[in-house]
Each structure stands twice: as structure tokens, then as C-alpha cells.
């Protein structure tokens, strides 16, 4: 039988059979998702219950979701236009900083040094740094030589669309608040 690996766990990929979980026809899932669902289904229906197998499947599921979302997130953000311009580590801090701001402007980075250099260049030498980042040293994060490793630098390619979305959201909020006051 074929096995799929999720971190330290490896699960059996079951071919479609009577043991497999049947998803709705309109639901499209890929091979790793099918493997996880089938193993959860088998762990749920196994008699007697095998808790170690169930925990292994849940750990595989958490590993799958963690890896799936890691590629899409930036590790650091610089808010240029917002209520509190500065360098932040989490997306929730960015949301708090740009909430209710008319035209927010921010950029995502995967390297702290790059984010700090960008903030220094756009905001000046005295800029806000998130409390979570104040206690970290610059050398504790991966540092790239900007002249040599330009292919490793990732800039936020969707910031303008996110900004447009925030503009529409703020306009909708203002409209609803004025209607509520009437």
C-alpha cells in the first residue's frame, strides 16, 4: 500500500473502497486530503479504539494545515500608512494598525532585516517596532546579501488589492454607521 508522509507520521493511502469516507460529489479534494480523511474515518470507526492511531492521524492533520498555510504568510510586515506605522510580526497587529485608516499601505517580508531596512528607508530611523520583535536580535533571523540573493527576496505582490479591499470595507462601515445614526 502507498503511504503519504506528514512530518514524522506516515499514513496509508487507501484506494477507494467500502472503508473509505465518501465525500459529497461536489467536494473536490486532493490526494493528501483524501488520505487524511480516510485515516480519520477509519480511526473513528475502529473497534476497539486505538487512541495512538487516532492521535497520529490528528498530528498528521495539524502538520498538513501548518505546511499548507506557511507558504502564504509573510513572517514580518511594515505598515507605512496606518494609525501606527512600524514593523510588526503578526497579521493581527497589522489589522489593528490599519483598521479605520482611510488609505492603508503595508508590505510583507519573509526576512526581519529586510523589513527593518525597508522601514528605516520609508519611515526614518525612529519607527515603531512590535513588542514581540523588540526582544529578538537581528542575527537570530536569516540574513540575505541583498546584492547577491535578490531571488530570495519576496515582496508583497497583493498589497494594492488588499488596500482596495480595505478601502471598500471602510466605506461600507462608514455607510452603515451613518445609516445607523439616522
From TrEMBL:
Domain of life where this protein originates: Eukaryota
Start and end residues of each Ribonuclease H1 N-terminal domain: 75-118
Name of protein: Ribonuclease H1 N-terminal domain-containing protein
Organism encoding this protein: Solanum commersonii
Amino acid at each position: 500500500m502507498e503511504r503519504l508522509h506528514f512530518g514524522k507520521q506516515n499514513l496509508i493511502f487507501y484506494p477507494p473502497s467500502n472503508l473509505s469516507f465518501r465525500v459529497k460529489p461536489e467536494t473536490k479534494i486532493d490526494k493528501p486530503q483524501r488520505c487524511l480523511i480516510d485515516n480519520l474515518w477509519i480511526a473513528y470507526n475502529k473497534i476497539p479504539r486505538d487512541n495512538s492511531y487516532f492521535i497520529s492521524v490528528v498530528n498528521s492533520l495539524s502538520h498538513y494545515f501548518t505546511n499548507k498555510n506557511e507558504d502564504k504568510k509573510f513572517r514580518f510586515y511594515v505598515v507605512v500608512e496606518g494609525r501606527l506605522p512600524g514593523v510588526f510580526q503578526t497579521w493581527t497587529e497589522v489589522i489593528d494598525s490599519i483598521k479605520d485608516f482611510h488609505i492603508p499601505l503595508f508590505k510583507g517580508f519573509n526576512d526581519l532585516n529586510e523589513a527593518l531596512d525597508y522601514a528605516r528607508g520609508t519611515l526614518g530611523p525612529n519607527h515603531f517596532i512590535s513588542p514581540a520583535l523588540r526582544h529578538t536580535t537581528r542575527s537570530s533571523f536569516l540574513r540575505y546579501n541583498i546584492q547577491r540573493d535578490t531571488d530570495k527576496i519576496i515582496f508583497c505582490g497583493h498589497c494594492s488589492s488588499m488596500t482596495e479591499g480595505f478601502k471598500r470595507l471602510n466605506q461600507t462601515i462608514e455607510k452603515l454607521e451613518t445609516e445607523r445614526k439616522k
